């Protein structure tokens, strides 16, 4: 197995990729070549413009994580970060004060914004940024592609008693960072998705892969938005590669983040079986051949198999690289079975 394609969000996807690459390097993934190539198709619907800068949280989390520049405690942004620019902006009273951009991180956004202003598409800009973060360690073996070059943004409708309509629509970042996902979400609106097209290389990465993996990323605002880009779902339905996912829901709740709230808002049961059925079996018009659930959710296996999805229950906590590599190995084994 030479070509692996992963549809990734931010932290969950990045941690999974670390384990996957660890497994490739250590030779512990069954049937995977030591020089296998990994293409990451990352969610860009978390992106937004703030303080005049184009910020791409999921692309950057993957890039910094695989380039060893991530802050390991926060799981986002740069290590050894300082916050002078944020403090200065706050001193001017410039909103949003609740969104933290670190000084080192700002350099990335300045470079990205300049290149975008100069007319380069996000995919080219990402390639340029990755020459710093990925090439030194991974050469050509790891590619990071935005799901689309078009502007697509997740917004969340939340209840708001002060508004005449009883609701207010905020950018996903405001829902997550300012409101901490504590306000009930009524629905998720992915602005621009219907008119977007996959970035160059994305469809080929799916149709030309030996395996496609969904890491335990958010099913609504990470994998869900990637699947919403017209053409991507069809590529997954028609690829000859097996498509296998890993559940981000363990024991009926998310491990971190806000998947529970958002799954509820789209009417999907918050469980490993609920998310697996939501993606659906490829044999029945969905996108999955296989789905891994955590050992604690072993009782879900039968229901998923009945839905036409191959399933097994294994430990799914990404506690360290070795444990995560074992998850990747289990996904690859499931694909081969
Ligand atoms: P985000 O963009 O930073 O929110 O990251 P992702 O969308 O890639 O991943 C978020 C998802 O990862 C959440 O729904 C979590 O439940 C899931 N997650 C985080 N850590 C783990 C873990 O150790 N095991 C599993 N199974 N899921 C995890
Ligand atoms: Ca994200």
3D structure, described in words:
It is an enzyme of class 2 (transferase). Its EC number is 2.7.8.28. Keywords: Magnesium, Transferase. The protein is α/β, with parallel strands linked by helices. The chain folds into 2 domains: 3-70 and 120-149 and 196-336, Rossmann fold (3-Layer(aba) Sandwich), CATH 3.40.50; 153-193, no CATH class. It is 38% helix and 19% strand. The protein has 14 helices and 14 strands. The chain has helices spanning 11-26, 57-66, 84-91, 103-117, 122-133, 135-138, 172-178, 202-207, 223-228, 232-238, 259-265, 272-279, 301-306, 321-336; strands at 3-8, 37-42, 48-50, 53-55, 142-146, 153-159, 167-171, 185-191, 211-214, 243-246, 249-250, 253-254, 290-294, 310-314. Strand 1, helix 1 (11-26) and strand 2 (37-42) form a beta-alpha-beta unit. Helix 1 (11-26) runs parallel beside helix 2 and helix 2 (57-66) runs parallel beside helix 5. The mean pLDDT is 97. Bound molecules: guanosine-5'-diphosphate and calcium ion. The site of calcium ion has 7 residues, from helix 2.
What is the CATH C level class of the largest domain, in words? Answer: Alpha Beta
Count of distinct structural domains: 2
Separate helix tally: 14
Helix content: 25-40%
Radius of gyration: 19 Å
Spatially, the strands of the biggest sheet line up as: 5-2-1-9-10-13-14
Give the name of the CATH architecture of the largest domain: 3-Layer(aba) Sandwich
Give the beta-strand count.
14
Seen as an oligomer or otherwise, the chain set is: single chain
Reported for the largest beta sheet, the result is: 7 strands, parallel
| CATH third-tier fold name of the largest domain | Rossmann fold
Shape summary:
globular
Termini separation comes to: 15 Å
Unreliable parts: none
Q: What percent strand? A: 15-25%
Mean pLDDT: 97
CATH superfamily of the largest domain: CofD-like domains
Order of helices and strands: EHEEEHHHHHEEEHEHEHHEEEHHEHEH
- Distinct ligands: guanosine-5'-diphosphate, calcium ion
Structural class: alpha/beta
């Amino acid at each position: 197995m030479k070509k692996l394609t992963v549809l990734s969000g931010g932290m969950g996807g990045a941690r999974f990729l670390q384990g996957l690459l660890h497994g490739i390097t250590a030779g512990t993934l069954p049937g995977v070549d030591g020089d296998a190539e990994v293409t990451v198709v990352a969610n860009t619907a978390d992106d937004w413009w703030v303080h005049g800068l184009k910020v791409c949280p999921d692309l950057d989390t993957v890039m910094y994580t695989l380039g060893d520049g991530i802050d390991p405690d926060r799981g986002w942004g740069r290590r050894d970060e300082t916050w002078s620019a944020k403090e200065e902006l706050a001193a001017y009273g410039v909103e949003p004060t609740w969104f933290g951009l670190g000084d080192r991180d700002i350099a990335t956004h300045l470079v990205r914004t300049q290149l975008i202003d100069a007319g380069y598409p996000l995919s080219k800009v990402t390639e340029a940024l990755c020459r710093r973060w990925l090439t030194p360690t991974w050469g050509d073996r790891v590619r990071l592609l935005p799901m689309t070059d078009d502007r697509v943004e997740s917004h969340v409708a939340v209840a708001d008693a002060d508004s005449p309509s009883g609701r207010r629509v905020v950018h996903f970042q405001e829902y997550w960072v300012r409101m901490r996902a504590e306000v009930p979400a009524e629905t998720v609106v992915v602005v621009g998705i219907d008119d977007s097209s996959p970035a160059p290389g994305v469809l080929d990465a799916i149709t030309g892969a030996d395996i496609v993996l969904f890491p335990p990323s958010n099913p609504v605002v990470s994998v869900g938005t990637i699947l919403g880009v017209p053409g991507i779902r069809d590529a997954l339905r028609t690829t000859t590669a097996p498509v296998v996912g890993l559940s981000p829901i363990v024991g009926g709740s998310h491990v971190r983040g806000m998947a529970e709230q958002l799954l509820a808002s789209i009417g999907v049961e918050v469980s490993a079986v609920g998310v697996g059925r939501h993606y659906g079996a490829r044999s029945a018009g969905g996108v999955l051949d296989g789905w891994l659930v955590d050992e604690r959710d072993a009782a879900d296996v039968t229901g998923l198999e009945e839905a036409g999805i191959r399933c097994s229950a294994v430990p799914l906590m990404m506690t360290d690289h070795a444990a995560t590599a074992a998850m990747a190995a289990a996904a690859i084994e499931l694909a081969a079975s």
